[in-house]
Specification:
Helix content is about 55%, strand content about 10%. By secondary structure, the chain is an alpha/beta fold. Among the domains are: about 100 residues, no CATH class; about 90 residues, no CATH class; about 55 residues, no CATH class; about 190 residues, Rossmann fold (3-Layer(aba) Sandwich). The strands form six sheets. A six-stranded mixed sheet has the order 11-10-9-12-15-16, with helices on both faces. Strands 1-2 form a two-stranded antiparallel sheet. Strands 3-4 form a two-stranded antiparallel sheet. Helix 9 packs parallel to helix 13, helix 17 crosses helix 25 and helix 23 packs parallel to helix 24. It is elongated and about 140 Å long.
Length: about 650
Amino acid sequence: MTRRPGKGYRYGRWRGGPDPLAPPYDLGDAVDEIGDSVLGGSGVREAMRELLRRGMAGRRGLDELRRNVRDRLRQARQAGRLDGTLQEVRELLDRALEAERRELFPDPDDAARLAEAELDALPQDTAGAVRALKDYPWRSEEARQAYEQIQDTLRREVLDSSFASMKQALESATESDLQAVRDMVADLSQLVDAHNRGEQTDEAFAEFMDKHGQFFPDDPQSVEELIDSLARRAAAQERMMAGLSPDQRAELADLMAQTMQDMGLASEMAHLQDALRQARPDLPWGQRGQVPDGEQALGLGDATSAVAELADLEALSNQLSQGYAGASLADVDEELLEQALGREAVDDLAALRQLERELERQGYLNRSEGKLELSPKAVRRLGATALRRVFAQLDATGRGEHDVADAGAAGELTGASREWQFGDEQPLDVVRTVRNAVLRTAGAPRPDHRRAVRIAVEDFEVVETERRTGAAVALLVDLSYSMALRGTWGAAKSTAMALHSLVTTKFPQDAIQIIGFSSVAQVLRPETLAELSVDTLQGTNLQHGLMLARRFLARHRDAEPVVLVVTDGEPTAHLEPDGTPFFCWPPMPETIARTVAEVEKVARTGATMNVFALDPEPALVHFVHDITARAGGRVFTPDGDRLGEYVVADYLRTRRGRRAR
């Protein structure tokens, strides 16, 4: 279906894309889970990350996927030892020397004695002995075959460590096979160089794969895929070498260098290694990482593959942890995930990505400059959830007596009426409305002779009522780090959102402002409050919070002023005359004096000031009793889990008191 401007809709065959008949993606549970974390004191980013870590019904989250990867990592560490090629070469060398000595021993000729002396003088290290025997004239056929097997093993393993599956391709290799390898390496070096220079290489890549594709069974589809695969293996080869002991590393490096030299590949492979480093400098070149440590001896190629797998699993585990700056689900490599855990794991990841997209598409989350924020739609839902929980507590304890059914209703009737105006919510004066309609239509002809009266807009009248006094509520919430340490920050945050939701949705004639204070104070929008984690700054600057509260109350002079303070400590900070914050613990007399002075200014506005003290520490209790006595308020000492119940009940009690006057 498509929309044509000015011509309605046109229907046609569905040609792919999202299923237009698919049910809408249900985000209710996900939004509520995020809300639970936010109301518990987390920020939005932390709440979203927690949801993705837990996963959804029937789908694994990032934590479980990462645990599965770590299990796979532990298994990969048991793949075997890295010195398999070196051990195999030593065994073949011992076999060759033993067979040659058996052949020489019965021969009385002086040449046999000289040969024995040459064998006795061989270097002690394996690589040196193999090099010294390169031109040795073997008498024993068994010894000659063993030495040739050393050469063949080294050629295959060394190339297999650079090019996966090369060992199988070079089995029983002829000179023409080795020449094909030399041609491939030369062409590959040119291709990588061209890519590094920024040249267009699509055609060159296609020609390269047509000519040498048999050496790359993984069938890369682009030069980028080819380079990525080769560079990862080259970096894994370096990590594998770094995992050997110094003696093993020196011997194996010497054997590899000899082999490359014998095959005429030494300079070309060194150039290729440098080009791959240039193409992928982000890989862990030369770094020592995890290496397998099992019982089975691995050949050079298999050891490189095992180290490469460990590196991939480590990278995948890090991606799934999302514990680094700028982490995103897009960072998780689907190919690595499928290799490690299978296709079902990729489906689980896709479900998490869809959840993240839908939260933004359906308007619950906004992303601004890379920062994730709850939308106003989500904040409203969050506030409603917090309010429902508070009312559930009130109902359970019997302390609520909340009366919100008549929210926004008018005051007492005055007996007078007036013409209805758009936006009026006063009760309709039915008698005067009908009378106005009758008088307006009196004398008008009625062809049907019926007595019907047609009421027009101008006929409506409403009864006048006494103007109900609204309230201006300033809720001051302590943001100091001690709130988190005592586990009361989540309760304070949830309470603030519940009260804001109650006032804005049930009592729109009232006004509310949430003010957070730590070393300084700030006015908090609901969206900001939802995102907020507890302030790690030191200080409880109640003085500054009360200054902001007075400014708010001054803008609502016709409303009844109410100040509610939620805190867990004495004031430890104040503003200096130049506006800079000052902090000291224990509290300085000047801090207490400046705070008390601000309390008295609030009291002179006629505001009621109630304090909810979350710590029974005697100094705090003494202080809050002193300031509430000055401002004509009360002190409450609720447990953290009942804070919302106390604050909302106090607000509702204050409203009932206003209506009774």
